[in-house]
Amino acid sequence: MSPAQQSLLRSGRWKIWEPVLWLLAFAAPVALPSHAALINEIAIVALFAMSLDLVLGYTGIVSLGHAAFFGFGAYTAALLAKHGMPDPLTGLALAIAGATLLGAIGSLTIQRGSDLTRLMVTLGAALILLELANKLDWLTGGADGLQGVTLGPLLGQFEFDLAGRTGAYYSLAVLLVCFVLARRLVHSPFGATLKAIRDNRLRAMAIGIPVASRLSVVYTVAAGLAGAAGALLAQTTGFASLDVFEFHRSADVLLVLVVGGTGWLYGGIAGAVVFKLLQDTLSAITPQYWTFWLGLFLVVLVLVGRDRLIRPWTWWRRGKHA
Questions:
Q1: 76 and 146 belong to one structural domain
Q2: DSSP secondary-structure letter at 158?
Q3: How far is the C-alpha of 202 from the C-alpha of 221, rounded, in Å?
Q4: Using CA atoms, how far apart are residues 129 and 127, in angstroms rounded to an integer?
Q5: Are residues 296 and 149 in the same domain?
Q6: Which residues contact residue 244 at a Cβ distance below 8 angstroms, ignoring those fewer than 6 apart?
Q7: DSSP structure class, residue 149
Q8: Helix, strand, or coil here: 136?
Q9: Is there a contact between 236 and 160 (Cβ–Cβ < 8 Å)?
Q10: CA angle, corner 257, sides to 238 and 282, nearest 5?
Q11: Concatenated DSSP letters for 282-319?
C-alpha cells in the first residue's frame, strides 16, 4: 500500500470523540425538550453549510447562490406534501433528486471564469428562481408562501408534534446519513483530487485530473445535499416561502462556514451550532439590536482569528494524537 493510500485510510478513520459527539446530538432533544425546534434548525443549517463546504472548502468554488438548491428542495417537498404525497421520506427523496438535477445543470456555469464570475452567475441563478417562485403564485403561493403543507407520520408511526421533537430527530438522522456519505467522498481518492484542484487547478490539469468532470460531480452532490436541507425545513415547519431563495440564505451559510471553518466537515456543524445559538440568544436579549452584536462577534472572529479562539481545543486534539 502506497503512503498516499495509507494517509487516506488514516484520515478517513473515525476518531474516538466522534461517536460520542453524535450520541450527544441525538440525546439533546430528550435532554432539552423545550429547545427541540432550535436543535432542528441547527441540524438543517449544519447540513446546508456542509453542502456548501464541499464546493467551497474542498474544491475552492465560491458561490453566492447556494440558496437556489435549498429553496428548490424546500418547494419540491412542500408541493408534493400539499398535492398528494404526504410521506416525508418520499418528499425528501424527490426533493434531493430535483435539486441534484438542478445542480447538474448549474455545474455547467461554474467550470469557466474567475471567482467573481462564479459569484455573479450563482447569485443570478438564485435570483431567477426567486422571481419565478414569486410570479408563479398559482403554484407557489407567491409572496404569501405555500401554506397548508401537511405531512403524514414519519415511517408511518411518528407524528410531527408541535414541540418539534420528531422533526429534530428526523433532521439529525438525515444530517448523520449525509455526513457519513460526504465523509466517504472527501476521504476517497476522488476527494484527494478535489483538494488538488482547490490548491492549484492548472497543476491538477497537468497531472491528468479531469477538472471539469470533478467540478461537475461535486457541485451536483452539494446541490443534492442543499436540497435535502431545504426539504427538511419545509417538512418540519409545514411552510415554504420566498425566504428560502433570498440572498441572506446564501450569505448566512457563508457566515456559518466563516465561524466554523472550511475544508473540514465538522466546521459546518460547529459553525451552525455557534451561529444559531448566538442568533437565538442575542435576539432574546436585544430583539432590536441582535444583528449588531452578531456582526461584532464576526468582526472580532476575523480580526483575532479562529485559530486563536479555538487554540485550547487544538492543543487537546494534538495531545490526543501525539
A1: yes
A2: B
A3: 23
A4: 5
A5: no
A6: 67, 70, 71, 74, 75, 230, 233, 234
A7: -
A8: coil
A9: yes
A10: 65
A11: HHHH-TTTHHHHHHHHHHHHHHH-HHHHTHHHHHHHHH
* Residue 186 contacts residue 206 (beta carbons within 8 Å): no
Rg over CA atoms, the chain: 20
- Which CATH number is 65's domain given? 1.10.3470
The residue type found at 45 is V
Do 198 and 59 form a contact (C-beta atoms < 8 A)?
yes
C-alpha cell at 109: 456555469
DSSP string for 38-76: HHHHHHHHHHHHHHHHHHHTTT----S-THHHHHHHHHH
The C-alpha cell at 304 is: 483575532
- Alpha-carbon gap, residue 204 to 185, rounded angstroms: 18
Which residues constitute the domain of residue 316?
Answer: 286-322
CA dihedral 296, 302, 307, 311 (to 10 degrees): -20
Between CA 225 and CA 241, with CA 127 as vertex, the angle to 5 degrees is: 70
Site of grid cell 438564485: 126
Between residues 42 and 117, which one has the greater pLDDT? 42
Model pLDDT for residues 208-231, shown as the tens digit of each residue: 888 888 888 999 999 999 999 999
Quickly tell me which residue has 464576526 as its cell: 298
pTM metric for this prediction: 0.88
Beta strands in the chain (DSSP E): none
Number of domains observed in the structure of the chain: 2
Q: How many whole angstroms separate alpha carbon 45 and alpha carbon 182?
A: 16
C-alpha cell at 45: 443549517
Q: Could you tell me if 215 and 59 are in contact, meaning their C-beta atoms sit under 8 angstroms apart?
A: yes
Residue type, 265: L
Place of cell 487537546: 316
Residues 200 and 318 in one domain: no
Residue 255 and residue 159: Cα distance in Å, rounded? Answer: 34
pLDDT in tens, 50-68: 999 999 888 888 888 888 9
